[in-house]
Every structure is written in structure tokens, then in C-alpha cells.
Amino acid sequence: MKRTTIQPPMLPGMGRPEFGGVQLRPGMESRRAYTGPHQGLFDEPTTATQDAMLEDAGEDTTMNHLIVEPMYRIPAYRIQLVRDSGPTCNRAAISSPRSAVDIIRGYIGDPDTEHMVALLLDTKNQPVGIHTVSIGQLDFAMVRVADVFKAAILANARSMILGHNHPSGNPHPSPDDVAITRKLVEAGKLMQLEILDHVILGEGDRYLSLKEEGLLTD
């Protein structure tokens, strides 16, 4: 794309002219903006090409070659945690995989697609929230680590229990289920956010706890 140079009028009392939302600066000060015949558009100027720029600019090397550069406004983001209505449960501490399974099953029901959720706990292992990490994920290994921990960090949770259902009804974990769980456990250690268990929900009351099966860690 060809750069266009302009010669803006000098305004009284102003050493550097400016136009609206663009900033003008001499081509001598812009290393990437020089478009003279002595170098390419994106080449770094050498001493020889700088001398050539002086010759091309003429007598007034400060104001004759001004480059219009659009200004970019950097967006500012605000993170907000939105609280929705969730399942009802006893505020007692989660003391067994069955307690976590009952809460998770009451939250997701019996869907025909795979749901992965995170049950968020405080320092006393009491539930402080539940978050849907993904829905309809065909491959559990495709779950992003950031999505698993995002709500827990915002809710100031201290630990969590992961859970997902198998629409087939068989709660037996796949090799990917075990592998990604172990990666998430290690990631949680780095963030001081412990993953206590990962439960897999099957048909009816069937479930499997990776912790009980000794599969949570290597």
C-alpha cells in the first residue's frame, strides 16, 4: 500500500501541526515511513539513506515531509462475575464423591450431550458455586485449561471438584479423561487451587470417582 505525504499549513504559534485524530511527525523521525527512491518501505535507514532523505527533503527537512499516522485507542476491559440461579444443596462440607455427584447431577440433569462442570469450594470444602465449563465437547482432551479455572479464580474459590457426564451411560473414564485430569491437577498446584476429585456421571445413579480409583495423580 502506498504511503501519502502531505504538506499541512503552518498554524500560528505551533511548532508541530496536528490535524484532528491523527498525529503528524516529520518523515525524518519515522524509520518505517520513509518512501523515497533510495530504500524500501520497511527497510531500516542506513547513514547513506539518511543523507539521501536530507537531499530529498530539501532545505526545510523538519516540516516538508510529514507523515499522517492514525491514532489507535487501546480498549480497556473489565472482568465481572455474574451470579445465576443454581441447584439447592446442604451447605455442609463436601465429604465424599457421592455428595459432589448429587449436586452436579441436580445441576446438569440427564442431558444427551456431554457437560463438564466445576464445583467450587471454599477453605472448608463447602460449595460456593458451580460453573459449566463446556457443553457438547466431543473430546474431553480439547477442554482449555483456562476455561476450567476461570470461574474458580473469579469466585475466590480455594479448591474444586470437576465433573462430567457420559451420555453413553458408562462412567468408566477414557485415557483422555485421565490424562487431562492429571494435567489440570498440576495446573491447579501452580495456581494454589487444588482439584480434589473428578467424578464421571453415568446412567441412573452410576458414577466413578477418579480419586477413589487412584487415577487422579500419577
Short key terms for the protein model shown above:
218 residues; alpha+beta; Cytidine Deaminase, domain 2; 3-stranded antiparallel beta sheet; 4 helices; 8 strands; globular
Low-confidence spans: pLDDT under 50, at least 5 residues?
13-24, 27-43
Q: SS-based structural class?
A: alpha+beta
Identify the CATH architecture of the largest domain.
3-Layer(aba) Sandwich
Estimated share of beta-strand residues? 15-25%
How far apart are the termini? 56 Å
Q: What is the count of DSSP helices, taking H or I runs of 4+ residues?
A: 4
Strand order, largest beta sheet: 5-4-6-7-8
Domains, number = 2
Name of the CATH homologous superfamily of the largest domain: Cytidine Deaminase, domain 2
Which outline best applies? globular
Mean pLDDT: 78
β-strand number: 8
Radius of gyration: 30 Å
Q: What would you say this structure looks like, in words?
A:
The protein is α+β, with helices and mostly antiparallel strands and 218 residues long. The chain has two domains: 5-70, no CATH class; 97-209, 3-Layer(aba) Sandwich (Cytidine Deaminase, domain 2), CATH 3.40.140. Helices cover 22% and strands 21% of the residues. It has four helices and eight strands, in the order ββαβαββαβαββ. The chain has helices at 47-57, 97-108, 145-154, 175-190; strands at residues 5-6, 22-26, 66-70, 115-121, 127-135, 159-165, 194-201, 207-209. It is globular and about 75 Å long.
Question: What is this entry, summarized?
Answer:
With 218 residues, this protein is an alpha+beta fold.
